[in-house]
Amino acid sequence: MKHRVKTKHFNRDTQSRKALLRNSLRGLIEHGHIETSEARAKEIRRLADKLISQAQKDDLATRRQIHRFFGKRDVVNTIFDQVVPAVGDRKSGFCSLEKLSNRRGDNMPVYRLSLLLDEKKWHSLKNETKKTDQKKSKKTSKKIVVKKELKKTEKESSKKTKSTEETTKKKSK
Q: Which of 70, 101, 137, 165 is 20 to 30 A from 112 (CA-CA)?
């Protein structure tokens, strides 16, 4: 009998189990959804509900507790700045679990765990505007380099055509 056993062990020791759950929860907060097995999704949902309801207090002590759990400030800031305001007055049930399909390799059912947030209020932890700005700057720098190379080749080709014209004139004289 499994008296007083609350968590699944996932055939792992304590440290690796905690790391698995912490990293999966971090992925859930960063991206808004994750795809995993049913047992893992249920365990992650349990932890996410506890953390988000704890974060609704919004004081320094809870920030420090959540930072102690994650160890990264960006995830903590995302929880307090984006997730908690998007959740609003909801007391529990911050995540939804839906079955997608079976995985091709081993026919295991795959589930999507997603945060129940208003999409307008939710922004990913990864700042997309910075990425697009970096891509644009790389593209523009590449364009500048290409334009410079084109100008050089045009100058060289014009010099070659001038020199060939001069040689043809000299030959014709």
A: 70
